[in-house]
Amino acid sequence: MSFDRIVILTGAGISAESGVDTFRDRNGIWSKVDYRDVATPEGFARNPRKVHGFYNERRRRLLGIRPNAAHEALARLEAAYGGSYLLVTQNIDDLHESAGSRRPVHMHGEVNSAFCEACGARSRWSGDMSINSQCPHCQTTGRMRVDVVWFGEMPYHMDRIEAALATCDLFVSIGTSGNVYPAAGFVEQARLAGAHTVELNLEPSEGCSSFEEALYGRATEVVPAFVSRLLAAEVDAAFERIVPLP
């Protein structure tokens, strides 16, 4: 089976094998830190130093972390696939880009990006941030924040994502818990469009019953295997178009 319009969603499970801290697992970050203090606009208004410190630590922990075979497989799929392809990630790390993916859509923002509340500009940001940080665009001091979507804020790029879901014929969810909306509802949107839906995960997600196909195991194993299968189907379909089967 070959497909013309693919949408792929990735979550924390794809980066966990590279050593990136997860947020919602039993021993994840939110089991140790109150999200209301560090991941809400209200928390930032109360104590910006604490919020900056939290994300500075997230940024530092990414230093030296490399993409794994699952990230690399998706980059290979993007490079080889001839149809419409959209990679949407809930992750705020840059491992998809490091693996070679050209245009991943970060619906929850990026930890290596900064947002200026004074002028609305975004900037790449690799070092620490503080209340004394200056916007490189408008030179305002004290109005910079990490460019991630906090609780109570709208995810980024939703118009583009929903447009792709409305026309896709394959939707693949990788390494997600299935309990974070709006991403948890993407599978139903894809099903309404008539798409084939696949879950690749360590274990069944909360929304596993919505998928027509599932492969469970380590992301570094199931994702490369699935991508190889997809690309093989593409080659077969292309050959049939050139030399129709009798």
Explain this structure to me?
The chain has nine helices and nine strands. It has helices spanning 12-16, 35-38, 41-46, 48-61, 69-80, 95-99, 158-165, 186-192, 219-242; strands at residues 5-10, 84-89, 105-106, 109-116, 122-124, 144-148, 170-174, 196-201, 213-216. α6 links the parallel β2 (84-89) and β3 (105-106). The longest helix is centred in the C-terminal third of the chain and has 24 residues, at 219-242. The radius of gyration is 19 Å and the shape is globular. The model is unreliable at 238-246 (pLDDT under 50).
Helix share, percent:
25-40%
Query: Given the C-alpha coordinates, what overall shape results?
Result: globular
Using DSSP, what is the number of strands? 9
How many alpha or pi helices?
9
Low-confidence stretches: 238-246
Radius of gyration based on Cα positions: 19 Å
In the sheet with the most strands, the strands line up as 3-2-1-7-8-9
Mean pLDDT: 93
Distance between the termini: 18 Å
Topology:
Blueprint: E1 5-10, H1 12-16, H2 35-38, H3 41-46, H4 48-61, H5 69-80, E2 84-89, H6 95-99, E3 105-106, E4 109-116, E5 122-124, E6 144-148, H7 158-165, E7 170-174, H8 186-192, E8 196-201, E9 213-216, H9 219-242
Condensed summary:
With 246 residues, this protein is an alpha/beta fold.
Features:
246 residues; alpha/beta; six-stranded parallel beta sheet; three-stranded antiparallel beta sheet
